[in-house]
Write a structure and sequence with these properties.
alpha/beta, Succinyl-CoA_synth-like, CoA-bd, Rossmann fold, SUCC_ACL_C, Alpha-Beta Plaits, 515 residues, five-stranded parallel β-sheet, 19% strand, succinate-CoA ligase (GDP-forming) activity, six-stranded parallel β-sheet, 40% helix
Length: 515
């Protein structure tokens, strides 16, 4: 194998584009591995860990673009660089007929586009606070996709935004729908009268998609970033988001989604709910029903339940809604196929909250549920590469994404793990999510299909049935063609779950013994 490096001095590309470029570069024929990244210490560490470190990489500066290619020989490396250069050229080339103008600073963009009211920050976390502050000082709302931002900077930026009456979504905020425009990872959904405030990207996506399916629509989906409800940050953005939706005439119902907040922050959120003249549905994964109902909120234990409550509160006719009840005959059918020793679920997720929801559903019946995102230390995986009993893995967690594209863009890491789990004779069910929408992989089921077929054949050769559940998060308005994705799953012999909630329930019920 040959490793070659090109360093482009003072060439900046945002992190969202870098993830997409790296994914495409790894698909170039002959490429064993390709990394396209800015020359930060964190990216160098990733390159060092995968054995691709060179002197050129060591010497790259944070403002330089590093292109690292591993291929069978020099000729293939050179060919790969030609392909990558074409990708870079294509990225920088304006689309035909486009009158797009690029600005090099937030200040110049704000001055030349007076109607602009929001900036998306997707630069290295080291520089993101500086750029976000500039945007806020120019009276722009901010959505910060960047992560690796200190909590002190997050607090300072959110306090500044609060004082100016602006939104500070993030850091590490990947999903929003503002003024019916989807930002970063979001789905194409109907405009309506339900507003969402979410400290969870895929949790917010799931709610918006289910609301769309039940005939409702979205006014605004305000992301907060995953740390907002921590004791340190104090829920500044969640509270400001609730107030914004309370004041928004178009919003009739508010839905909140998050992992359980810090107790002191939860009190603030519940106090805000108590003052709300509009109904508020609360889906805090693993949350406390009594506290929510006491505050006058509408508690939901699961995602589909939350979406259903929201559309009914917004005026939908319940008799016209297909609630997609669980397929109980299928449960009995699959239980009969699994051998007694096939006791375990393996959940392989690209969405953190989807993973969390399936895990909590399993925890209702099993006391041996492990994960890389378990809050109880005794149930945290000792080694994320090795499953224990019932295991649920969030492949979007930092352990899997440092220096690599998110699994919603590049599913390669999950594919490797899927085959590993399929070989385990104690596994009865593997459950996975496939996220559609803006920014996501163009054909997520297609990318996994060869592995599903291989796993099914492997199990059959060993005389056992392996149940594979796929949940596709998306709508008929998303560009990836959801019906086509479902048909691919079914043709490969997998079971399609109609929601995140149903995926978790099916996985749990399939492996229950003795009921």
């Amino acid at each position: 194998m040959t490793v070659q490096v090109v360093v482009k001095a003072n060439t900046y590309i945002d992190s969202v584009s870098l993830m997409s470029l790296s994914t495409k570069a790894n698909q170039i024929e002959g490429v064993e591995q390709a990394i396209i990244a800015m020359g930060t210490e964190m990216n160098k560490e990733v390159i060092r860990n995968v054995g691709l470190m060179t002197q050129e990489v060591e010497e790259a500066r944070t403002s330089d673009l590093m292109i690292v290619v591993k291929a069978e020989n020099e000729e293939m490396c050179e060919s790969a660089f030609v392909g990558i250069e074409e990708l870079l050229t294509k990225k920088n080339k304006p689309s035909k007929g486009s009158s797009e103008v690029k600005y090099s600073t937030i200040k110049s963009a704000a001055e030349n586009i007076p109607d602009a009211n929001l900036a998306i920050i997707a630069v290295n976390g080291m520089y993101a606070p500086r750029e976000a502050r500039k945007a806020l000082e120019n009276n722009l709302h901010v959505m910060m996709f960047s992560d690796n931002v200190s909590i002190e900077d997050e607090i300072a930026l959110k306090q500044l935004a609060h004082e100016k009456g602006l939104l500070m979504m993030g850091p590490d905020c990947g999903t929003a729908i503002i003024g019916n425009v989807a930002l970063c990872f979001a789905n194409a959904v109907r405009k309506g009268n339900i507003g969402i405030v979410g400290a969870s990207g895929t949790g917010s996506q799931e709610l918006s998609v289910r609301i769309h399916e039940f005939g409702g629509g979205i006014t605004q989906l305000i992301g907060t970033g995953g740390r907002d409800l921590s004791e340190e940050v104090g829920g500044i953005m969640m509270l400001d988001g609730i107030k914004a939706l309370q004041e928004d005439e178009a919003t009739k119902v508010i839905v909140l989604v998050s992992k359980p907040p810090a107790p002191i922050v939860e009190e603030k959120v519940l106090a805000q709910i108590k003052k709300s003249a509009k109904p508020v549905v609360v889906w805090f994964v693993g949350g406390d029903e009594e506290k929510v109902t006491k505050a006058g909120g509408h508690f939901a234990k699961m995602s589909k339940e939350a979406a259903l409550k929201a559309v009914l509160l917004a005026g939908a006719d319940e008799s016209k809604i297909n609630k997609r009840a669980l397929n109980l005959p299928l449960v009995e059918e699959v239980r009969a196929k699994l051998k007694p020793e096939q006791k375990y679920i393996r959940g392989l997720f690209s969405g953190g909250t989807l993973c969390d929801e399936a895990m909590h559903i399993a925890m209702e019946k099993f006391d041996n549920v492990y994960s890389n995102i378990q809050r109880e230390p005794e149930f945290r995986l000792k080694d994320v590469k090795v499953s224990q009993d019932h295991t649920f893995i969030d492949f979007g967690d930092d352990q899997f994404t440092q220096g690599k594209p998110h699994p919603m863009i590049d599913p390669s890491t999950r594919i490797e793990r899927f085959i590993q789990e399929a070989k385990d004779p104690s596994v009865g069910v593997i459950v996975m999510d496939f996220v559609l929408g803006f920014g996501a992989h163009e054909d997520p089921v297609g990318a996994m299909l060869p592995a599903i077929i291989e796993a099914k054949q492997l199990a059959e050769d060993e005389g056992r049935h392996l149940e594979i559940i796929g949940y596709i998060l998306g709508t008929e308005l998303d560009s990836q063609n959801i019906e086509g994705q479902i048909n691919k799953l079914l043709a490969a012999g997998a079971t399609h779950a109609s929601s995140s909630q149903n995926a978790g329930l099916l996985a749990r019920e399939f492996v229950v013994k003795g009921e």
